[in-house]
Amino acid sequence: VARLRAALLEAEGLTSPPEDWTRSYFLKPSLLRYLRGRGSHELALAALQASLAWSKTTFTEILRKVEQEHPVHKNLMRKYTPEGTFGVDKRGVPVNYMRMGLRDTAGIIREVGSDTYLRFYVDKIQRDGVAFLAASLKKEGCNTTMLDSVFVLDLEGISWNRGSSTVECIIWLSDNILKDHFPEVTQVSFILNCPWYFSMGWTLLQPFIPARTKEKFRIYGVGDNFLDEL
């Protein structure tokens, strides 16, 4: 980790980590995430440099557009996206809760447009990152990764149509943003109140999911007791 930090500082022409929010890339937990996600020092360094460049250009432009977004669109997104960070886990990291069964992704996109919808979630990632950074700064001397989060996804009341549109957006975010610029951000995901067809689909997909990824999911059907593990 120390060698990777030194190499990143040298590559960026710095003698010490910056004081702005990009400081998170130089923290031990973040460096560990890239090492685990890429598997080698060289690949992790290349990915970190690419993410830093992205954060200073594309990411910054997305956040600027969010600030300029029409107030009506902002209010619609806040009102009809039943999710957010509530409380913290035992490490002090914010926990993300999502009421997937109450979210009408297709309807929101119809009203605000797909670009606004996706910008909203990139902005949420940034705001979560600030909260995770604050938690990590308190734990910088420890060996625990503090930039990965616990996710709780409640599927109660979800329909096939609503679920399909939501999954499509999650896949897009994962493939285009999370995979390259926010690796290993999930510690564990609790998926609760799963309908029978979700459980069937999960069984079919499991052989194609990497073991490391599969270990991060906890699946509970309707009526199952999840509170003890959560």
From TrEMBL:
<dbReference type="InterPro" id="IPR036865">
    <property type="entry name" value="CRAL-TRIO_dom_sf"/>
</dbReference>
<dbReference type="InterPro" id="IPR051026">
    <property type="entry name" value="PI/PC_transfer"/>
</dbReference>
<dbReference type="Pfam" id="PF00650">
    <property type="entry name" value="CRAL_TRIO"/>
</dbReference>
<dbReference type="InterPro" id="IPR001251">
    <property type="entry name" value="CRAL-TRIO_dom"/>
</dbReference>
<protein>
    <recommendedName>
        <fullName>CRAL-TRIO domain-containing protein</fullName>
    </recommendedName>
</protein>
<feature type="domain" description="CRAL-TRIO">
    <location>
        <begin position="73"/>
        <end position="230"/>
    </location>
</feature>
